[in-house]
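User: Hi! I'm working on a homework problem where we have to compare a predicted structure to a textbook description. Could you give me the structure for the chain below?
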Amino acid sequence: MRSDFAGLVPDIAAGRAPKAQNNDTSDAALIAKIAAGNRLAMQVLFARHHARVYRFTLRLLGSEGRGGGLGQ
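Assistant: Happy to help. Predicted structure tokens:
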């Protein structure tokens, strides 16, 4: 799994901060890969955005108890 992930996003897999996105790891490219059935691309896209989605739902609903499961 780590070697697959390293091929898709080498900086994150190596523990470094990601550089500017290239065409292969842009959100649009990942969505195309997801549409083609690539589960790893979904994991990368989720890892990239899940905290932001969670914070948005928390602000929208006003409490962690009401918004805890919506970011999933």
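For your comparison, note the following. The chain has a mean pLDDT of 76. The chain has one domain: 2-67. Good luck with the assignment!
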